[in-house]
Structures are given as C-alpha cells and as structure tokens.
Design a protein that fits this description.
Layout lengths: L1 H21 L3 E4 L9 E6 L14 E7 L25 E2 L6 E6 L1 H4 L10 E7 L6 E2 L7 E4 L6 E5 L4 E5 L3 E18 L2 E17 L4 E11 L2 E12 L14 E6 L2 E7 L6 E5 L13 E2 L5 E6 L7 E8 L3 E3 L7 E2 L4 H6 L18 E5 L21 E5 L1 H4 L5 H6 L1 H7 L3 E4 L28 H13 L3 E6 L3 E2 L4 H4 L28 E2 L5 H17 L4 E4 L14 H4 L4 H17 L4 E4 L5 H9 L3 E5 L1 H8 L21 E4 L8 H8 L10 H17 L4 E4 L28 H19 L8 E5 L4 E7 L4 E7 L5 E7 L4 E5 L5 E4 L3 E6 L4 E5 L30 E3 L6 E5 L7 E7 L4 E7 L5 E5 L6 E8 L4 E8 L1
Parallel strand pairs: 10-14, 24-25, 24-33, 25-26, 26-29, 29-30, 30-31, 31-32, 32-33
Antiparallel strand pairs: 1-2, 2-5, 3-6, 4-5, 6-7, 6-8, 9-11, 11-12, 11-13, 13-14, 15-16, 16-19, 17-20, 18-19, 20-21, 20-23, 22-23, 27-28, 34-35, 35-36, 36-41, 37-40, 38-39, 38-41, 42-43, 43-46, 44-45, 44-47, 47-48
Family: Belongs to the glycosyl hydrolase 13 family.
GO molecular function: hydrolase activity
Pfam families: Alpha-amylase, DUF4961
C-alpha cells in the first residue's frame, strides 16, 4: 500500500510538472498547499506580463487573504514595496533563467494575532526597487488557494470552457488532494474511474460537434467533491447572408438586441463570449459566416436595456479579440488605474478571472448626447489660429473636463481652432497617443465619451472648431487588426493580414504599417474618418505621418521617401475626396513634409499641409538671422493658402528653451529672461506677419521652456504660474495682440498685396488690401540698426499698433533706428490698442485712463482652487475691486477702506474657468487674469 501511495504521489508530481512546463505562471509544491504546511511557490518570470523576464534578482510581494475563499483583499502584508528586503528575495531554480522559487509556511509566516483562517495567498513579483513587476496575463494580482480540506482539480485543461475542432484530441488530467475514488463523466455518462488514487487521466476525442459537460468526481469516505468544465466542439460555421443594414462592428437593433459583425476573411469560425453567457464557449453562440467568407455575424438578444456588457470574439479557437469597431474598450492592464483614480466613473473592472487580452463594451438604449451648439461659423482655412494641445500635459489633472475649464483662457487669447493630439484608445494610459490600438474608441484615461463631446460642444460655443490628430499610418500590437493575423500574441502581421504590411514600407514607422492600397484598409480609413466627424462633431483632421501612406518600398531611404510619389498622391486624394463627399467643410491637414512638387499638387487639390519652420526659428531664437519666406504659400508657387506654418509643434524643441540655454551672449545676453522674451516677441510678430493659417503649440504663448528631448515622450510639467510672471505676460499679450489683428482684419489672412523682405538682419513685411495696410519691421541683428530707411506703400499718417503713436511718413519712406530685437507693427489706420503690457518701455491697457503699473498687483495661488489671495500695491489705500468672468458678469465686488494690502476671496461657488480681477481708484486701474480650477 505504501508503494502504491508513493507511485501515486510521483504521478501527481509528474502531472504537476508537465502542467508547469506547459502553462503555469505560478505553481506550488505540493499541488494542494495548506496553511499549516510548508509550500514552495514557483514563478515563471517569462509568463504573464513578463516584466521581470531576464532579471538578475526577483522579489515576492505577498499577502494573506482572510476575508473569504473568493476575496482578493490582502489582509496581512509583511513586506514593503520597492525595498531590497532579503526576506522577500526569491531563489533562482538551478539551471533556469526565469524560474524562481520562494518557500513559506503560511500560518507561521504571517503575523496573525487573531488566528484568522488564511484562505488564499495573493502575490505580485518585482525587482528590488519596484520599478518592474510581474503580474498575471490580465495585469492583476496572482492568487494561490490554500486547501481547506478534501479538494479536486483539473490539471488539464485549466480553463473552465474550451473549444475543440472535430478530430482533435484532448488529454484530461485530474488530481485530488488525497487518495479517493475518482471518476470522469461527460454529459452524464461515466467514462473512466480509478479507486484509491490521487489522479486520473483520460483522452477525449472530438468526434462530433456540440457542448460537452465534463464532470470530475472524487469520493473519500463520506466526503464527495466535484469539479465541472465545458468543452465545445465546433462544427462548420453556419453560412447565412448578412442581415440588411448591418455594418461591421456593433449594430444596435433595439433596446434588447444587437447584431455583431466581425470582418475576418479566411478564418474558420468565431464565437461570441462575454458577460451575457458567463464567458462560456457555447455552440449556440457560434457566429454565422457570410457566403463569401469575409464576415462573421451574430444576432444577440435578451439584453437588459442600458446595461453595459463586456464581450470578445474567440476566433479559430485561440484568438481572443475585442470588436475592432467598438467605441469603448475594457483593458486588462490599465483600467484598474482609471478606476482607482475615478477617471471614468462607473467603469466596470476588466473580467480578469474570465478571459485575457482586450475586450469590448456594448450597451443598448444609450442616451443620445444633447448637442447644444451646432450653429457656429467655421473659419476659412487661411484664418485658422490652431492651438495644438495634449490633454495629458495641458493640465495636471489630465482630463477633458480640465481642458474645458481652460477654454475661456484660449478664447481670450483669440484661438479659433483646437487641435487635440490623438485621443483614440492607445496602448497604456500615459502616452502622446501615436500608438493606437482601437480606432473608434476614445481613451478612457481622459474621461468618458460624453466628456469628450462636452469639450467639443463647449469649444463650438466659443467659436472654436476642433481638429483631431488622426493616426492611420500604423496600428500597434494590441489592435484586433493586428492580432487576427500575426505572429504570437502581439507579434508582426503575417502575409495573410488584409490590412497591414508584414514590414513597413518607409522610414520612421512605429507599430505596424498599414497597406493603404488594400481595399480593406481603405474601407477602414473611410469608416474611421466618417465616424469621428459624425459622432463627435470634430471639424477636421491632422493626419499623422501622411508621407507613410504609400506602398512603394523605401526601406530606410529617407531622401527617396520624400520625393514625389504619384501613387501616394492618388491615395491621399482618394481619402480626401471621400471625406469631402460627406463633410465638405472638413479641414484636412497633412503632416507630410515631402518635396514641394508633391505638396503643391495636394495643396492645390484642397488639402492643407504642415509647414515646419522650427529649425529656422530656433536658429533665430539663439540670435541668428535667417530667411523664412518659405513659410508663405506663394513662395512655393501654391495656388491655395493651405500652408500651416508653425514655429513649434509637439515634435519640435521649444524656442524659449533654445534662447535661454543657447542664446547669444556676446553683446546682448539673450539668456537673460527679459532679453529672451524680447527675442521671442520679435519672432512672434514676424511669424504672424506671414498671411497663412497658424498653429501654436501649447504654452508657446507663455514662452514654455521645458526641454522636449529630455524624456521626449514623458510627462511635461504645466506652468500656469507663467501667467503671473511679468516678463512672460509681455509675450502672452503680444500673441493676443497679433491674433486679434489676424482675427479682425482679412489683410492678415489673404491680402491683395504682399511684400516680404526677410533676407537681411532688418526684415520687413508689407500686407495690403482696400481695408487696411500693415508694415512690420524688426531688427534680427545683435547690434543697433541705425539710419534704416523704411519703405511704405504710400505717404501719410501711420499708427503704431502697439501703443497708438502716430508716424508721419513723407515720400514713401521714413528713416528710423532699431535697437536689438526692436520691432514695429504699423498700420495706415488707427486701430484699438491691444490690452496688457507688451513692450518693456510701454504700458498698454484697453482703458485710456491713467493707470498704475499692472505688474505690481499679485494674485496667488496660480491656478486658484477654493481661495484666491490678492496683494495690493502699497500706493493704493481706498479702492474698489471686482471679479469678472470673460463674458463681463461680476462675481465679486466691493470697497476697501484702509491699509489692508492682502485680500482673500472664497471661490467655492464660482465654476472653473478664466476670470479677471480688477482693482481701481480715482487714479489707477489694474487688471489681472487668473484661472480657477
């Protein structure tokens, strides 16, 4: 009997070892560990999230679960995260690279003064400092159940529900925690039994299709335990035509039913699994296949109205994917952070105990978003003043709601177009967004779908159009479009992939390159483009890496890739014309940066193109003088004013950082902030002086000076406190003044007459039409420019736009002197003066009364939250004050008598946004903007 027992134990160990080698991320010795006995935990670092693969040392972070056998709460945690505690150190298994072990006796290992029952062990693995970790396939904690008595388990298969093909065989392996009579039944028929054993093995042959309930039973004395799994043997897919009107993706038919349509040409079968069927692979959830073999579809009924369900497709028995057209994705790796930070209230947790890989949401009877502001005027392309922003870095809260609170600020600046960096579901939570996986779903980290729609609606309310940065050059490995036909779980596309190239056709590619000549890709592109314009009311797109929309194989030849490519031109024209067919007013902007002969064809066809002026302006920011006339569309012989020139973008180094770190110091110290501001003002005046659509990268108006390429893709700090900096205010007010000029006078957009003289150190621009003439002159040299003869289109009275001074011009020219960085903006009509102090030597206000210097008024903190403090200049004793919003509504006002120079205001009842604090007496008027968040 003892010999038999030993043989049984050996067999159990061999079965455990086989299972460990094939599947297990974490296994234990013994197979049924108990709390009062020694248990060895064995961890394979190459499995699960594999974050510790190849590490020299691995630590265990472990906890005891005492609430219940199914709880996931760690009640007792002995180790501190991120320390090199030797007691948490694991031992590498001899002869292995990524197999580690740790031994403990739970009842004596954990401090458990109340002697609570330990039901489970929860664990996560890490390196010494916690910067790397190993978790389950679904990025969750790993749990080992402790035996509470007589138990029975399936070693193979390990999943509760499994799919087989006809003719396939499956080895079923069962073990018990003690000797017992073990039997195996399928659909109620007993097929195998053993007595006085701890294991049973049986081979199941899938000879016919259907659902097979597999029950394991073990009896020891008077105790009986059972375990059940389900095997589905797939028959041929039912062949039925697609229901009328059904499209790829989720089709909501009624409040209780939907038709799911999956494009998967060449695949054998597909099943729908999800919350509605317990995540079981059931024959009645096998999808129909269209006669041409292109599509699978399934009509899902019995749904609860407005209830959210998470689901997947199981394709050919081993590919689990979300719906590629879903508008909301459940992610195993990153959703818990969103839930923990309450970024998407009500978000259902990923069903990590049921499945792995990304899944999709569906919800019938969704409430329609109530669009409030659909009647707004769209600027002509040349009138655009685009503000490019990354939701992640525009506000430290990193939400759509936070951006909404800043819209008044952008409106006050004069912005008429927002450009959002990509917000489609991308890999990870913290990203620039150029690593997309799902092209119809907004990323949940920034907020809900309705939060995004509210942002767009509120922008429209303020007369701003909203442009989406669209990424259709490539997809990343989590995308179902990749995973349906690829190598491994997240590997490169195979030759069968109908959307993607196996190898990118051009340099600078990231992710996996789309084949834009494929009709599958073209249909996808057209669907994506139509969707965001229709469903979210976006007003247009900026297409990332549009030069990559080619099937010519350029390899890594950057120069050849930039040459004229007729096939690429045809592909982009086709896409543009499709957009225009249903949204004729949509803006289409390309990040193309190819040779002019190609860009001219596209521009003349109606597409807009990015014009990168960053390198030139960075050189000038350091003190050089460069010709930048190429920023004007006619200098490129284009017929349409479709060149979106920019000094900065998300991709380019910041001008102010360049000036402050590398500015010339030989004569004028450009690295001193006042001089750096002067230099950047000079650049700004001339940048806006070229009549064209303009783009500003976020905080460029405040002279943002964080280095881009110090952790290029990493989070960059916001600096809203720049609004309180007297020097940076001058740059802000000049931006505002130039945008005001552009928004108010067509001569700044599409003039009748243009003269650019930008070669020398003293540069001039003349713009003219019947309504207004503008002359801009500035000194880009590092020494004073004396006896400069400034030409005017005609003689008479001209006006300094920034301070209202009159200039008398006789004989079409005037001799002037220009200091270093000095510039003038002159008009032939007296215009309203801009607000705020712009130039060092002048105080400009919108109100002509005699005023004190605005910079003496201090507001803090910036931004304000529940309370605002105001430091009043010492020369003001008896004064009035008020707080106004950008529409002129007064939210606070009062009178102060006496010498109090520190005031405090509660702001809890004021909604988030941009406000003005105004302070005045009979001699002074002081105003400052602040943001309440």
């Amino acid at each position: 009997m003892r010999i038999q027992n030993n043989l049984n134990l050996i067999l159990v160990f061999i079965l455990w070892l086989l299972c460990f080698q094939v599947k297990a991320q974490v296994q234990t010795q013994p197979a049924f560990p108990e709390a009062n006995q020694s248990v060895k935990i064995i961890y394979d670092a190459s499995m699960g999230t594999s974050g510790l693969e190849g590490e020299d040392q691995v630590y265990i972070h472990i906890g005891a679960v005492t609430e219940s056998p199914s709880s996931t709460v760690w009640s007792i945690v002995p180790f501190e995260w991120g320390t090199d505690d030797p007691a948490a150190q694991m031992t590498r298994v001899e002869g292995e690279t990524d197999i580690w072990e740790f031994e403990l006796t739970p009842n004596s290992f954990f401090e458990n003064p109340n002697s609570e029952t330990i039901y489970r062990l929860g664990m996560v693995f890490r390196n010494a400092d916690g910067s790397k970790e190993g978790k389950s396939d679904s990025n969750g904690d790993i749990f080992v159940d402790l035996a509470q008595g007589f138990e029975l388990n399936f070693l193979q298969p390990q999943s509760e529900s499994q799919l087989l093909e006809i003719g396939e065989e499956l080895q079923i392996e069962i073990i018990s925690s003690q000797e017992a009579q073990i039997s195996l039944s399928i659909n109620g028929n007993e097929l195998a039994t053993v007595t006085s054993s701890t294991s049973l093995t049986h081979t199941f042959s899938a000879s016919s299709s259907g659902l097979f309930e597999v029950e394991a039973r073990a009896m020891a004395g008077e105790e009986t335990v059972t375990q059940t799994i389900y095997l589905t043997v797939a028959g041929e897919s039912p062949v039925l035509p697609l229901p009328a009107g059904a499209k790829k993706g989720i089709n909501y038919v009624s409040d209780t039913e939907t038709t799911l349509v999956l494009e998967a040409p060449g695949k054998e079968n597909a099943f729908v699994i999800g919350d509605f069927n317990g995540w079981k692979i059931l024959p009645e959830y096998q999808m129909n296949q269209t006669p041409d073999g292109e599509l699978f579809w399934y009509h899902l009924t019995g749904l609860e109205p407005q209830k959210e369900y998470i689901f997947q497709y199981l394709v050919d028995g081993n590919i689990r994917i979300a719906d590629p057209y879903a508008d909301k994705i459940s992610d195993p790796y990153h959703d818990q952070e969103i839930i923990d930070q309450n970024r998407h209230p009500g978000l259902l947790p990923y069903p990590g105990d049921k499945t792995n890989f990304q899944a999709s949401f569906l919800q019938t009877a969704q409430e329609e978003f109530n669009w409030q502001y659909t009647d707004y005027e769209k600027p002509a392309p040349e009138e655009l003043v685009i503000y490019e922003l990354l939701v992640r870095d525009f506000d430290e809260r990193r939400t759509y709601k936070a951006v909404i609170e800043k819209l008044d600020y952008l409106q006050d600046l004069g912005i008429n177009a927002l450009e959002l960096m990509p917000i489609m579901e991308f890999e990870g939570n913290i990203s620039w967004g150029y690593n997309p996986s799902f092209f119809f779903a907004p990323d949940k980290y920034y907020g809900s779908k309705d939060d995004l729609k509210t942002l767009i609606d509120e922008a429209h309310k303020r007369g701003m159009v909203v442009i989406l940065d669209m990424v259709l050059n490539h997809a990343f490995g989590q995308s179902p479009l990749v995973r349906l036909y690829n190598e491994g779980d997240y590997g490169a596309p195979t030759a069968e992939n109908p959307w993607l190239n196996t190898v990118a056709k051009h340099p600078f590619n990231v992710g996996y390159d789309f084949n834009h000549e494929s009709t599958y890709t073209q249909d996808l592109v057209d669907s994506v483009n139509h969707y965001w314009l229709s469903e979210y009311h976006f007003d247009g797109y900026r297409f990332d890496l549009s030069k990559g929309f080619t099937q010519k194989d350029y390899g890594n030849d950057v120069e050849q890739w930039s040459q004229k490519d007729d096939s690429r031109i045809a592909l982009l024209k086709r896409m543009y014309e499709e957009i225009q067919s249903h949204h004729p007013e949509a803006y289409v902007i390309l990040e193309h940066l190819a040779v002019n002969s190609e860009e001219k064809i596209l521009a003349d066809h109606g597409l807009m193109l990015w014009g990168n002026m960053n390198h030139t302006f960075r050189e000038m920011a350091k003190g050089q003088s460069r010709d930048f006339s190429y920023g004007y569309f006619q200098e490129r012989a284009w017929q349409e004013n479709n060149l979106v020139g920019y000094m900065e973008s998300h991709d380019e180094e910041r001008l102010m950082w360049e000036t402050l770190n590398f500015g010339d110091r030989s004569i004028v110290d450009l690295q001193a902030l006042p001089n750096a501001i002067n230099r950047n003002q000079l650049l700004t005046a001339f940048y806006f002086g070229i009549p064209a659509p303009k783009m500003i990268w976020q905080f460029g108006e405040l002279g943002y000076d964080e280095e881009l390429n110090n952790d290029r893709l990493g989070i960059k700090p916001t600096h809203w406190e720049y609004l309180e900096n007297e020097e940076r205010q001058r740059l802000f007010h000049l931006y505002k003044a130039m945008i005001q000029l552009k928004n108010g006078y067509q001569v700044m957009n599409q003039p009748d007459n243009v003269s650019l003289d930008l070669e020398g150190k003293v540069k001039t621009i003349w713009l003219g039409d019947e309504a207004l003439n503008v002359v801009i002159v500035g000194n880009f040299g590092l020494t004073n420019a004396n006896q400069v003869s400034l030409a005017f289109p005609f003689e008479g009275t001209w006006y300094n736009y920034l301070n209202g001074d009159e200039w008398q011009v006789e004989g079409n020219s005037k001799e002037i002197e220009l200091g270093v960085n000095e510039f003038y903006i002159l008009t032939d009509q007296s215009l309203p003066m801009p607000e705020g102090q712009i130039l060092e030597e002048n105080l400009i206000t919108a109100i002509p009364e005699k005023g004190g210097r605005g910079q003496e008024l201090k507001l803090y903190p910036v931004p304000a939250t529940d309370k605002l403090h105001v430091k009043v200049p010492g020369n003001m004793v008896d004064f009035r004050y008020r707080i106004l919003d950008m529409h002129g509504k007064v939210h606070r006002e009062g009178v102060n008598y006496g010498n109090d120079n520190i005031l405090g205001f509660q702001l809890k009842d004021i909604r988030a946004g941009l406000y003005i604090f105004e302070l005045y007496d009979n001699r002074h008027l002081l105003r400052k903007q602040f943001i309440k968040q």
